[in-house]
Design goal:
- With 463 residues, the protein is of the alpha/beta class.
- The protein has two domains: 184 residues, Rossmann fold, CATH 3.40.50; 269 residues, 3-Layer(aba) Sandwich (UDP-N-acetylmuramoyl-L-alanine:D-glutamate ligase).
- The protein has a ten-stranded mixed β-sheet with strand order 8-17-16-15-14-13-12-9-10-11, with helices on both faces. It has a seven-stranded parallel β-sheet with strand order 3-2-1-4-5-6-7, with helices on both faces.
- Helix 1 crosses helix 2, helix 2 packs parallel to helix 3 and helix 7 packs across helix 15.
- The longest helix has 23 residues.
Length: 463
């Protein structure tokens, strides 16, 4: 607790060196104990400190009680939760509720959280913003909107997915001197970022040729939806697939070849589909597929293949109507598609995304990618990852099509289903972050990502 308080105090001084009056909100638990340590350290350094505490019927945990007593023994005082806040406060430290919360905050915690969110002063949250659930990132009630969150020892899933990005602010991690111990622990959920890409994407052999990098077939693009399959196919090329073939509605063939002549494109019918299936190493089905007879017939034929396959968009909507389990598939639903696959509401998916992605794998097999802020990747062996990349600019049409193409392209280059899903999500989100850094998030297009995908699928970028 002492080390946690020291880490939080150091962060506050580094980020807000000019702040002179700190308000420390302390709950009736160990998170509150961290707050008392921060308060004592700040006061000793000459900062004006006001502490407001929520008292409970049960005694404080021993460490928190000791921290509270040390604050009082040093001359500090404690204001009750209902008291008026001083007008000169210019920094708020949130030590109200920690990782043990499992439901919406109750009084007086909810009122303090809402008051902090209304205040002009920035907030530093200790371990996790109060009100955010550490296990899944759900926000069932009032939640502290932090400018910075300093989390202790290991990362919590709820800091990276669900509603986390609305509340966490800039995330910092302090292992409190336990880095060596953490490295020996079995991590149940892996956080993946662009720094992990070189472990999946090795430099190419100088004498390699296109046949070594996979033959990928994409099927989709019913009448009026040619853009979806075109974006997926071009993303597959940009991700490094050796040869990319598209079967689509006849009206899209000429425009697609004009826009991207490196693609092979034909009108979809039973004959061309059977020929392409024999040719391909990996399949992608769904972008722009539609749910009419045209798409249903193609999906029925593709289902008979035992080749690695990525299912997205309307392929998933059709799967929800006729569920079946298989091991050779990556499925990439957004929350609405996941809700249809699991027979529940979208709100149910968003209330516990980790549970939802596990259920998708259990029910449908293979690898599931649950898209959203903090995309989740899970497989049948129990592996799970959170892709800690991406931004709000990705909330626009076509982003999922580009992701399908990237993952499909990596599958064609012989990555495993799970590795291709993890690497593809990271490449996709990191490319969007690079675009955002250059031009902002508002108005970002899915095709804006295509040039930046090149930067991340080549390991040399890290140098």
């Amino acid at each position: 607790m002492q080390r946690a308080g020291e880490a939080a105090y150091a962060l506050a001084r580094d980020e807000y060196p000019a702040s002179s009056h700190w308000l420390v909100l302390c709950g009736h638990g160990n998170n509150g104990g961290d707050g008392y340590v921060v308060a004592r350290l700040a006061a000793a350094a000459g900062v004006q400190v006001t502490v407001i505490a929520c008292e409970g019927a049960r005694p404080l945990p021993p460490e928190a009680a000791a921290a509270r007593q040390a604050w009082l023994a040093g001359g500090g005082d404690i204001m009750p939760a209902g008291d008026r806040w001083p007008e000169t406060v210019d920094l708020i430290v949130d030590g109200l509720l920690g990782t043990g919360l499992g439901s919406a905050p109750r009084a007086p915690y909810d009122a303090l959280i809402e008051a902090a969110n209304r205040h002009r002063a920035p907030v530093i949250a200790l371990d996790i913003p109060s009100g955010l659930l550490a296990e899944n990132g759900a926000a069932p009630g009032a939640v502290i909107r932090a400018a910075h969150t300093v989390t202790f020892i290991g990362l919590k899933p709820g800091l990276l997915t669900g509603q986390a990005r609305d509340w966490v602010g800039q995330l910092h991690q302090s292992t409190l001197g336990l880095s060596g111990w953490l490295a020996k622990q079995r991590v149940q959920i892996q956080r993946v970022t662009a720094e992990a890409l070189p472990q999946w994407l090795r430099p190419r052999r100088p004498c390699s040729h296109k046949g070594e990098h996979g033959r990928l077939l994409l099927v989709g693009g019913d009448r009026g939806f040619g853009g979806a399959i075109r974006m997926a196919a071009e993303a597959a090329l940009r991700s490094g697939a050796g040869l990319v073939r598209v079967l689509t509605h006849i009206e899209h063939v000429a425009p697609l070849l004009t826009a991207r002549p490196e693609l092979m494109a034909q009108a979809l019918d039973d004959e061309t589909l059977q020929q392409a299936l024999a040719w391909a190493d990996v399949l992608v089905v769904g972008p722009g597929l539609g749910q009419g007879d045209w798409g249903r017939n193609a999906l029925k034929i593709l289902q008979a293949s035992d080749k690695p396959t990525l299912w997205d968009a309307d392929a998933l909507n059709l799967l929800a109507l006729n569920p079946e389990k298989r091991q050779n598939r990556v499925m990439t639903p957004h929350p609405g598609e996941a809700a249809r696959l699991l027979g529940c509401r979208t709100a149910d998916i968003e209330s516990d995304r980790l549970l939802a992605v596990r259920e998708l794998v259990l029910r449908y097999g293979g690898v599931a990618v649950l898209k959203g802020a903090g995309t989740l990747i899970a497989d049948e062996r129990g592996q799970m990852a959170i892709a800690d990349v991406g931004n709000a600019g990705m909330a626009s049409g076509g982003m999922g099509d580009v992701l399908s193409g990237v993952i499909g392209g990596l599958l064609a280059q012989k990555l495993s289903l799970y590795d291709a899903a993890c690497a593809g999500c990271v490449v996709h989100g990191a490319a969007a972050d690079r675009v955002a850094a250059r031009q902002g998030t508002r108005g970002m297009l899915a095709t804006d990502l295509l040039p930046d995908i090149l930067h991340f699928v080549n390991p040399e970028w890290a140098k």
